[in-house]
Amino acid sequence: MTENAVEIKNLSMEYFDKERNPRRVLDNVSLNIRKGEFISLLGPSGCGKTTLLRIIADLQKPTSGSVRLAGQNTKEARLSHKFGMVFQTPALLEWRSVLENVELPLELRKVPKKERRERALEQIKTVDLKGYENSYPRELSGGMQQRVGIARALAAEPEILLMDEPFSALDEFTKERLHGDLLRIWRSTNKTVIFVTHNISEAVYLSDRVCVLSANPARLAAVEEIHLPRPREDAVLKTEEYFKTVSHIREIFEEKYNENI
Amino acid sequence: MKTYKKLLSSVLWLAAALIIWEAAAYILRDVICDPLAAKKVPGLLEIGASFLQNSVELMRQAGVTMSYAAAGFALGASVGIILGLAMSISGLCEKMILPYLLASQMIPIIGLAPIILGLFKDIAVSRVVIAAYITFFPVSVNFLSGLKASEENLKSMMRVYAADKCRLYSKLLVPNALPYLFSGLKISAPMAVTAAVLVDTLSSKDGIGYVIVFTLYGGGTTGQFWPAVIIAALLGLLSFLIISAAEYILIPWKRQKEEVRK
Ligand SMILES: Nc1ncnc2c1ncn2[C@@H]1O[C@H](COP(=O)(O)OP(=O)(O)OP(=O)(O)O)[C@@H](O)[C@H]1O
Ligand SMILES: [Mg+2]
Known about the structure:
The complex is a heterodimer. By secondary structure, chain A is α/β, with parallel strands linked by helices. Helices cover 38% and strands 25% of the residues of chain A. Chain A has eight helices and ten strands. In chain A, the strands form two sheets. A six-stranded mixed β-sheet of chain A has the order 6-7-8-3-9-10, sandwiched between helices. In chain A, strands 2-1-4-5 form a four-stranded antiparallel β-sheet. Chain B has two domains: 1-41, no CATH class; 46-261, MetI-like (MetI-like fold), CATH 1.10.3720.10. Chain B is built from twelve helices and no strands. The chains are: A alpha/beta, B mainly alpha. The complex binds adenosine-5'-triphosphate and magnesium ion. Residues 49-50, 88, 164-165 of chain A line the site of magnesium ion. Residues 49-50, 88, 164-165 of chain A line the site of magnesium ion (MG).
């Protein structure tokens, strides 16, 4: 029996517009995420992916439904540092060096200075930023800043990693390198990763399962197991199997889209 | 290239001002033959000579005014910072304080100075209090808006890592508000100096403002009037430069961004 890292039950979210009319963004989403699984939430822009991730991270409250992380509610999980988060933008503190930024979660957990330095340096090495420890965010490229954000999320060694379109602002080359890095880190640390994206091929390449979200309101339209071999190398990107899976998921989207008209 | 043009423009303005001044002095003295010419608009040479002659005394008086202004500024800035923090931490505090803060700025300083003097009966204390009164408002209001200006994303990040309120402030909100705080300090520093000069003129026995009135209404060496006015103006500028230097040292991350932009 595999334990569930995250259990999402009947989750709904409504925002109120200017006329105070409720607008449903998430509609009755239920999903169990296995421990150690790499799962993607795939959906068009504005469909509610960030909202879902923010509810899991206890950054906002759902209208109804519940989320439990390893048996705890979201607040308990947050306060006991169960998860780390990589944001859509790097979200770095501009007055702190790379090293100090990566150390921040450890500092907030009151980890002794020497230990947190060691752990931060290790994560900086993991994301290939050795030599930039003392640089400031403004001196780094967008891709490097995003990697600092990833190192920071890893430094706290959370069981669950929440990633909100971490690579969507990057160019193809940097993105592909970071995909490789991310899979390597995931394999070696056995974390549960919830990866939000609007890019079908990215979701297929990285994930064990892809959750397809429909828009207005977001419902779980389909959950697809990805049977590509692990460990995944760039070579997978040229296989027949990969193309088939990508087109299959594209078809699911087209169906959903036609339904909506 | 840009700095060169900036410098040239300042030099040209200064030269124009000096030429107009000298022309006015000449017309008053030699064309209109005003007997009070030397008092109203003395020639540049006379001003320079008087400046040198009285430099020790003028500097001493300037020092007196500056130290009162500095004490008041430090007091006002501290009060402003505390008020800004309090209003940011508690919404109730903001609702209670902010309207009165705004109202306090409706009272003109000219009218307030004699009241405060009457209240404290001591010119030294009054000078400090009025400089502080002038300072605290821009500092608290700017600091408050700085404390509110952190990106939503960064606040979420601090929340994900379970930062408590104290750490949220010390690690994100306060550092982020420093540039705002300094723009408040840069506005209020010259105002604190002006306030100190103004109170000098009321009933004190020293300070650069005292020199200005004393020489204006007879007594003393009339030649001291214009040098004293110039020094009073320079003191305001000096206070601004000191705060800017502190900003440059304390907020390196903003400084280098601007250098890159150039
Ligand atoms: N605080 C809010 N108040 C009102 N409406 C909101 C709020 N936050 C998000 N929404 C609405 O909820 C919907 C989903 O937003 P969300 O940010 O979750 O989308 P997303 O799937 O992450 O999009 P993207 O891929 O562009 O980041 C949007 O239509 C947005 O207008
Ligand atoms: Mg989003």
